[in-house]
Design brief:
CATH topology of the largest domain: Alpha-Beta Plaits
Structural class: alpha+beta
Number of domains: 2
Distance between the termini: 96 Å
Number of helices: 11
Helix content: 40-55%
Length: 317
Amino acid sequence: MSGLDFKEVHWMLSVINSIDVGMVVIDNNYDVESWNGFMVHHSNIDAADAKGKNLFDLFPELDKKWFMRKVESVKTIENQSFITWEQRPYIFPFKNYRPITGTVEYMYQNVTIIPLPSLTGDIEQISLTIYDVTDVATNRMALQQANDRLEILSDTDPLTKIHNRGFLEKSLHNVFANFNRNNIISSLVMLDIDHFKAINDQYGHPAGDAVLKQLASILKESIRDTDILARFGGEEFSIVLAHSTSSESLNFIERIRLAIEQAEFRYQDTTIQVTVSFGIAQTAKAFKTVNAWLEASDKALYEAKEKGRNQGIIFDN
């Protein structure tokens, strides 16, 4: 080997030892043969102490069966394999000391497993390349969390904290499609606070808001996990009762109506008497569109109002 070749090897080793990427070489017994500066810095294990040691002894936390399967598959196909932080946040439990992402306890890592063939072509060593992707991972997770929050906010009524009309309309299309495909009956309930304008006029709009929030709370506590509750607008609410006929829904709604009638709606030191009217329509082939189903429930609600309020009416075609 020429003097220039020795220089190149020296430079290469210097680069490998100083780059901000972890590099480990292990043999077929998973004993360490090479351990660069990145690994020394983040593991607090000197290269001299790591060399010759078994990787699983150095890192008892490492999932041995899982990791061996990964390495053996690389040796079998004689091609490199990638492990991303989405698959597994980290391979080596290195503490995260980055100032920007300091809230994360451990370094997020992407790892490349590379087979190293000998001069005879046999795979006798495996190289592990460890990339610190903590900033990328935390930024992406923060963006996803922000998007999730925005999606929740876009589907939530800001006053009552239940679903809003937009979410209801999306849900109605899904329920209606499920009925047309599988003939699964559900009922749509439209309910409205009786004489709500009078409440606002007598006690003020803050009192009206308090009534809306307390009513939403009662409704939320009364429905099943499979049901959908939404504020349709103003003093009007909607409930989709899954797997329920209109007759079954009327019995269910009657219990809610009584609970509302008997509840004490309070605003400051004032108790406000509240009643509600309901209109119920179950899915039917006669309804060609979601809007037709919605209009049927709304017509039944109007009929309940016309007949004296504080009651539930089933849509009769």
